[in-house]
């Protein structure tokens, strides 16, 4: 049984009912299960055990400090992509030597802060960035470690175009042959180019794109070794899949994907390399749900509409990527079973409904034409698999405050981010009327 399940008709998050969480903290709210977070991290550690990597949780997927702290306390390092994420990582207690800093546009300020703090390494995306790091590092009297992010021109057909990053047409990484030349040529005296990094997209559904990319990396690493240039770290990114319980979704479980990748990395391991992985979604997506409430039911010309109090401002993935999130009322009389089992309930008695938010855009929906039990105003609706890229991509569009975040551990709940109020929305504005 997972940590989200129905017991005698009531949706539970570990030992608490979703209704109790909503009563205590209101809706919309992102609700995380601490046990599921620990299990998510554990699954990754297990999947890649054969290469014993540093698991750097990708902060962008769920940057809440309490979530980061929980994962850090259980051994995770962190993958950051901005000065803000770096500061979160440090505040959550991550040792700098377990932090990797990625991203195509690192500013001087961000690089300086990260070098001063002593992060493990940067994942570098261009020659211009390499020059900048070399200059700053020299100025600070340091020599910093870095990995070149290689663009292997390996694209995964199943990954959404907006989140596929391994192809030659994207902005990511340094073309393979070019990266090899940079390392072979040397000449940046204040940096130690000690690693190779690839990240191919998010989510991938198979290990095969990584297996192809590793093949190319391995050939490159061996040519470099023959020329006396030693690489010590191999970072195989993130993008490992999770269940969205969608009717069409087919993917290989992360445990198998990780094992296949780890197996393919054994040659590197035999030559003494160290490894980094940067999973986000596969750790947190299935550890969080979005709890919202039906405001109104409405009849359109020819379709039913459920207007809930969460929209594209709360969860943008459905409209941005056409992403499917399973959703179900938090009360389903008589039903006992895992959250994913609601997708297999008999279709009898269900009605097709558009689940939409309060935002003034046609693209503001959580689901279109979804088969759901009849709902009425006031009903609680749970949107599953929302722990990754849910709250982290929420906005204040239409001047709605962002939702609360709640962490459930056993039968205890903690508010880990309070709901935003009007004063938060205007806090940075200069009031010329005064
Ligand atoms: N490493 C790098 C270099 C990345 O760019 C990413 C994600 C990750 C690791 C972590 O990927 P994950 O394991 O979480 O899939 N907003 C989109 C996903 C964007 C991913 C961006 N980069 C979504 O909601 O699906």
Automatic annotation (TrEMBL):
Pyridoxal 5'-phosphate binds at residues 239, 278-281, 389. PROSITE patterns: ODR_DC_2_2. Keywords: Amino-acid biosynthesis, Decarboxylase, Lyase, Lysine biosynthesis, Pyridoxal phosphate. Its EC number is 4.1.1.20. SUPFAM superfamilies: Alanine racemase C-terminal domain-like (SSF50621), PLP-binding barrel (SSF51419). Substrate binds at residues 281, 317, 321, 361, 389. Pathway: Amino-acid biosynthesis; L-lysine biosynthesis via DAP pathway; L-lysine from DL-2,6-diaminopimelate: step 1/1. GO terms for molecular function: diaminopimelate decarboxylase activity. Residues 42-285 form the Orn/DAP/Arg decarboxylase 2 N-terminal domain. It comes from the Bacteria. The modification N6-(pyridoxal phosphate)lysine is found at residue 60. It catalyses: meso-2,6-diaminopimelate + H(+) = L-lysine + CO2. Residues 30-387 form the Orn/DAP/Arg decarboxylase 2 C-terminal domain. Its cofactor is pyridoxal 5'-phosphate. InterPro entries: Ala_racemase/Decarboxylase_C, DAP_deCOOHase_LysA, De-COase2_C, De-COase2_CS, De-COase2_N, Orn/DAP/Arg_de-COase, PLP-binding_barrel. Belongs to the Orn/Lys/Arg decarboxylase class-II family. LysA subfamily. Specifically catalyzes the decarboxylation of meso-diaminopimelate (meso-DAP) to L-lysine. Homodimer. This is Diaminopimelate decarboxylase. It comes from Azohydromonas lata. The gene is lysA.
